Amino acid sequence: MSPLFELGFEFLILLGEACVFFALCWLVAKKIDNWSIVDVAWSYGFALVGLQVLATHFFVYHHLEGQGLLMAIATVLWSLRLGTHLAGRVLGHLDQEDGRYLKMRAEHGERMPAQMAYFYFIQALVLTILCLPLLSSNPTGAYGPAQAIHWVGLGVVGLALLIETIADAQLAAFKKDPANKGQVCERGLWAWSRHPNYFGEWLVWIGFLLMSYNSTYRGVPGLLCVGVMYYFLTRVTGIPLTEQQLLTSKGPAYADYQTRVPAFWPRPPRR
């Protein structure tokens, strides 16, 4: 079996599993009448895939080391951090639905469950595509120790997670102060970028690109995912939807913030 055919076969199997997983998630979301839980399910989904890859290679191929082991562990740790962060925000307030889904309810009305079925399928598809670096990082017959590029990639992932953690902590501290109600956070990393958390998230995939590089696939699956994540974060579900909500809730204060601080790429604050 050629490596490309093997990767395609693994992709289709994972897509089927992801569709089942998100179908169950859809049933739960419909039952509790809160579609926001898909964000938590999507985030934790990567950890499940990472653990499955580890188990498959250990019990079926009886071999997992070097690059593949490093990539799987990094994926699981990243997924657990992101999923736990979102779980605290979503599952702790199941009586409150995220603004994105409230807007979709207003647009689709009684067709919301059907619309969400399609939306959840897209989540399954995107998750499967974004797992390609992981699936391609340890092709059968191409085992070997981690190289310098893989350790550099791990360092990039570590830096990205640090950026996200600091940005989340700074924003949480800002929101806890009642005096900041209605104001825009411009402290720390938020003075360098309007969305440092999204920049950190994209940087994770740069790290995964480097970590997944090998002589079989040449990092092409990872490069595809870097492009997909950049597109979604900057053009689809990330910055555009978030900024719509913030302009509605913060008004002129956020509009002024937009004129002074870049949306994605960080730069030093202007005096």
Write the layout of secondary structure elements.
Blueprint: H1 3-32, H2 37-59, H3 66-90, H4 99-108, H5 112-130, H6 132-136, H7 148-176, H8 196-211, H9 220-236, H10 239-250, H11 252-260
Helix pairs in contact: 1-2, 1-5, 2-3, 2-5, 3-7, 7-8, 8-9
What is the structure about, briefly put?
The chain is mainly α. Helix content is 72%, strand content 0%.
Labels describing this entry:
single chain; 271 residues; mainly alpha
Major sheet: size, sense and barrel closure? Answer: none
Give a count of the beta strands, DSSP E runs of length 2 or more: 0
User: Which percent range fits the helix content?
Assistant: over 70%
Low-confidence segments, ≥5 residues, pLDDT <50? none
Compute the number of helices. 11
State which percent range the strand residues make up: under 5%
Mean pLDDT across every amino acid position: 91
Q: What is the CA–CA distance across the termini?
A: 60 Å
Question: How many individual domains?
Answer: 2
Q: Give, in order, the helices and strands.
A: HHHHHHHHHHH
Computed structural class: mainly alpha
Q: Please give the radius of gyration in angstroms.
A: 20 Å
Can you describe what's shown?
The protein is mostly helical. The chain has two domains: 1-143, no CATH class; 147-271, no CATH class. Helix content is 72%, strand content 0%. It has helices at residues 3-32, 37-59, 66-90, 99-108, 112-130, 132-136, 148-176, 196-211, 220-236, 239-250, 252-260.
